[in-house]
Structure formats: C-alpha cells, structure tokens
Amino acid sequence: MSFIDDIKERARRDKMKIVLPETNDPRTIIAAHKIIKEDIAKVILIGDKDRILENAKSNRLEVDKADFIEPDEFDRIDEYVERFVDIRKKHGITADQARQILLSNYLYFGCMMVKMGEADGMVAGACHSSADVLRSALQVLKTKPGTKLVSAFFLMEIPDCQYGANGTFIFADAGLNQNPDPEELAAIAASSAQSFSTLVRKEPIVAMISHSTKGSAKHPDVDKVVEATKICQKENPDLKVDGEFQVDAAIVPEVARLKAPDSEIAGRANVLVFPDLDCGNNGYKLVQRLAKAEAYGPVTQGLAAPVNDLSRGCIADDIVGVVAITAVQAQQLKSTREKISAATGATYNNSGYEI
What we know:
By secondary structure, the chain is of the alpha/beta class. It has two domains: about 5-140 and about 305-355, 3-Layer(aba) Sandwich (Rossmann fold); about 150-295, Rossmann fold. About 45% of the residues lie in helices and about 15% in strands. It contains 13 helices and 13 strands. It has helices at about 5-15, 25-40, 50-60, 75-85, 95-105, 105-115, 130-140, 180-200, 220-235, 245-250, 255-260, 275-290, 315-345; strands at about 15-20, 40-45, 65-70, 120-125, 150-155, 170, 205-210, 240-245, 270-275, 295-300, 305-310, 345-350, 350-355. The strands form three sheets. Strands 8-7-9-6-5-10 form a six-stranded mixed β-sheet, sandwiched between helices. Helix 5 (about 95-105) packs across helix 6 (about 105-115). The mean pLDDT is about 90.
C-alpha cells in the first residue's frame, strides 16, 4: 500500500471535519467531490451554497453531502467576532474590523472555525499565497505549546527506491523558513521527526544536511549545521539525529561507510533537514521531477491545530492528499487531548484545558 493510500485509510477510520475556504476555485470543488466519494473526511465548504452546487452540477460533480457555511448568514457570527477581537486585542482590532475581516476573508473565517471547534483542520493555498495562509493561521490559532516555530515539510514518496523508509522521506524545511539559525534548525528537526512518526508510523532517523560530511569542509554554513545538530541531540536525547552530512552520506549505506563510518545515522536517514529554504525547496523539486516522486505538501507543523498550505500549481488530487494528511494530523491532536484529559481530569474547550 502506498503512503497516501495508507493515510486515506487511516483518515476514514475517524473522519475529521476539514474546511475548504477556496470555493471559487474549481479545483477545490473537484477535490471536495473526490473526498466525499472516497469517504476520507467530512467536508466543510465556505461560500454561497447555491452557487457552489450549481457549479458542481454543471461539471457533473456531487458535493451535496458537504456542510455549507455562508458567513453572511452564519448564526454564530457575533460569537466569532467577539472571540476574534479577544484574540487580536493586543493589536487594537475593533468589532467592526473583525466582522469585516471574517466576512470578506474566508481564510480567517476557516481558521476561526477550527479555533471554535466547528472544524478539525483547514486546507487552503490553491489561490492564496503561503504567506496569506500562514498569516491567518498564526494570528488565529497561534503555535502549538512547546513549539519554537512553525515550519513546513514535503512528504516524498519515491518509486522503486531502496533508501529511506522504502522510498519515503520528509524534506524540511522546504516551504517556509528562509535561513533558520541553529536553534531554529534544531526545532525544525525535532518537529519533522515527530511528523514522520505520526504520518509514516516508522522510526524517524534524522540527518542534518550540509555540503560537508563530518568536517570535510570548513565554512560558517557548515558551523551552523554542526551547532544545530548538537542542540537537537541535547534537547532530544532519545531522537536518532546526527550530522553534518552530505545527502549521499545521509542515505546511501556504501557512501556512509566511507564518509562517516562512526555514525549510526549515516546511510539510514529518512528525515532530511536542509540548512536553508533554497536547499530544501529545490531539493524536493529535483526529486519530484527527476525521480518521478510524489511530493505531498507543503505540510505545516508547529501550529496549535492543523492548517495546511497548497501550491498554487496544485491539481485536485493534490488537495485530496493534503486533506487526508490534515485529517490524520487532526486525529493525532484529538488523541493527545484525550490523553491529557484522562491523565489530568481536565476537559478541552475552545479556550484550552479547564479543570
């Protein structure tokens, strides 16, 4: 079973409510049709219901089983406005400004649905920039407790590949942080390992990538990766992480024996943490195009609830895949909250945990 088929099967077991705010884009409606048909998640579509249904019908698509939310007629809009004002009170937002944002910008409305417990996650970005999607998520949902920063990765599934986890890798950060410092790079590594464990359900083996392997080159860029590796190892003593490695030393056992014979990680890595966004982004695209790999993402990690971005060049099947991933992330968050509640007696609501 392929990675994405496994993810879809897991999503079906406990269907999460995923909001799709970009209903003016035909790809979103096609994706909604497929999600409903494959029974992957409960779909929430934001926008004019009659228009959405008419457009779907004209293209022989069935989205009738979706939940439709029209912000202008939403009966909880006053509650949403009040909560949004409270979230943004340090920035001096007024109720009128909050209402205008929520009624005109469906990214913010979708994030508020997640915040208020009406949805378990959101997927957008087909017709919005990554900055727009992330801004709305950060302003409404904030970062996950204990997380130093939000980052993004691509889940790569490479056909006929003997490396990684049967050809499955995480490439990070490949979508968000331009030039992370050592502390940020270490945080990206830790988050990516957790994401790999959640989504792939195999042990993460993390390689910190550089143009140098174990001191073969001297440069401040190499020093950054070396320092990030030390920080990550210290903060995550149970995590299998090492570096600095060139990619071949990280994933190819024969090369690893020559370049890094004393490392238990070299030659076995399935999570590749790149030193900057240029490396990560171009690396995933090279593998996607030249190795004909499936690239799922950018998947966001570090937010308080799952909101995932799409490439503006995505197709409907890409949206379906990211929705399935988002649903599994939401399942993991639900499980974590249930464990906390069982251990502490606290219950979770839209404001957090209460005893």
